[in-house]
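Quick one:
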Amino acid sequence: MANSNCMDCRDELNLCKLCVKKAWIKWLHADYISTDSLCLSSLQAKQLQAQDAIMNNLCLSVGLKAKKVEAEMLNANSLCAQSGVINTLCVNNLTANNLNNWVKYRAFVAFSANSNYVLDSNVDFDNIIDDPNNNVSLAPFSYVVPVAGYYAVTLQVDQINMVTNDPILGVPTAHLKIYVNNVLARDATVPFLTFSNQQKSNIGSLLLLNAGDLVQARYSVDQLSNSGLSPVNGSVTIEGGPNATLFGIHYLSALNPSGTVPCSPCPSVQTPCSSVIVDCDRDSSECPPASSPARSLNRNYMNDCSSC
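Output:
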């Protein structure tokens, strides 16, 4: 105990077991470390278990076990965690079992130009604006549902120049229809303005769909007859462009979120550590120089760890 701040200072120390109250170490290489408080400039270890670890550089060959890890910046070749809370996350590629793929399960289609359309037939969009998962088919148009779940669906039809086989009695009504597997699933009616040959109408709805379902759209014009509303035979010009007639669908959530598959155990990744020496902040003076008598090893103290 030649120095109150540094009881033993050595250039190199080889021990089977080291027990100290407090230690400042420039570089430490150990097979196993268990400590309440640790401050190192650089650490290389096969396994680290610590209640509190503060260091400028941490490199572990096998793994890190800790109840809590806080870092301003974390760089890792491979990161596997059962749970985590992150304020900002930036990754090039993210794969997770419990992550709903709402990012890619979507589509947006329109008409590239004005097109003639036969009333109450399939609306065959010809311009795919967005379809990251390749679920859209053209000629005829359809959207194939990739996974079961809840979907938001929007259909907008802008039409002009309606031509009918017979005169229309009264005020016609636009009828938008969304079909699933050739069965009407959602529809909406929008009356024309009196004496107007132009109509802009839309429908937005929530659909519960199964994987493999076929989603399509139709548009008709109805008129009032003795038997109620009946479809008009004829055609219209559907307006094209990205802000006119369109169809959009977006996956919102899974049908059974509780049935997702948990993460598999983290794989063992062994990466050689490189030495990076950066001094830790200290609240006491440096160790005495190498010529100091304090370099001698007090083995009686080192072997008595009952007070640690």
